[in-house]
Please model this.
Amino acid sequence: MSHPLSSMLERVDEIAKQNFTPQVVCPTCGERHCHIKHGFYRRYLFAGSDCVKIQRYRCLNSSCPRCTFSCLPHPFLPIVRLPLCVLFAIVDMVQNAQATIAAVARACSRSWSTIRRAVGTGGKLRRWMRSEWASPCLNPARRWSAFTRAFSFAFFPGRF
Ligand SMILES: [Zn+2]
Model:
């Protein structure tokens, strides 16, 4: 039987393959209608080495300084390579001393340092979400775009 974390990663891959695009909104000016498709880039899925295409858009608001942007589909997070549910599961397993970082790393086929970083990121994210957000995964159609924008602004303001 596979480890619960690897099963979780495979399930999240199935969700990610649906490539559900949330409402397209320019993260700089909030424009919802005046944008065009502008190529794409690829993101790795979570369990294997497959990728999905992420659509890029160009904002056509003439007063907006942003050239292009993307609206990440649920459950991709900006920059972070693990989904929310897996980050939180890792935090729980390590903090409740059910598993060592090394054991979690083996179960996820990730390095020790990746899982150590995931524990830190997951812990920070959980504290931030407690004060700011109900779970955006429960209603990605309405909440995922706003959540990923707020996430970028809170954790990676230099790359927002
Ligand atoms: Zn814009």
Notes: The radius of gyration is 17 Å.
